[in-house]
Specification:
It contains 4 helices and 4 strands. The chain has 2 domains: 1-69, no CATH class; 71-122, Rossmann fold, CATH 3.40.50.620. The longest helix is centred in the N-terminal third of the chain and has 30 residues, at 21-50. 50% of the residues lie in helices and 15% in strands. The strands form 2 sheets. The protein has a two-stranded parallel ribbon with strand order 1-2. Strands 3-4 form a two-stranded parallel ribbon. It is globular, with a radius of gyration of 17 Å. By secondary structure, it is an alpha/beta fold. It has helices at 9-19, 21-50, 71-81, 104-112; strands at 2-5, 66-69, 87-91, 117-121. The mean pLDDT is 83. The chain starts with a strand and ends with a strand.
Length: 122
């Protein structure tokens, strides 16, 4: 799952007025499709790289989700509604001490998650 931060209402209105509502909607849909393709490609490459070490890739991806909203809210809501054993998140570590702190989204998910969370610096 990948959650794109929602743009402010002012930004959405500005882009919609500059590009036209239909074109802005098309751009958002295209970006969502590209994100799904990128995620699937990364998972496929990972499985290929690991094929020499594993007899079968343990990552069977049934669904790639890309949503636009507040990331921590969507992640916590998904955890609460579905059955998962662990949350694994990548974090860029954009904080006061870049590289040493986890990102704010990861930090909020770790605090609120009812299941274990693993944060990986990317």
């Amino acid at each position: 799952m990948h959650v794109v931060e929602t743009l402010s209402q002012n930004t959405n209105m500005l882009l919609s007025s500059m590009m036209g509502e239909d074109r802005w909607k098309d751009v958002r849909n295209e970006n969502q499709e590209k994100a799904v393709e990128l995620i699937r490609g990364r998972l496929d490459r990972f499985c290929e790289e690991m094929s020499s070490e594993l007899t079968a890739c343990p990552f069977i991806v049934e669904e790639v989700r890309v949503q636009q909203s507040r990331p921590e809210e969507v992640i916590i809501d998904t955890i609460d509604k579905e059955s998962f054993d662990i949350v694994v998140m990548g974090s860029h570590g954009h904080g006061g001490l870049a590289g040493t702190m986890m990102g704010s989204t990861a930090r909020r998910v770790v605090r609120r998650s009812k299941i274990p969370a693993l944060v990986i610096h990317i």
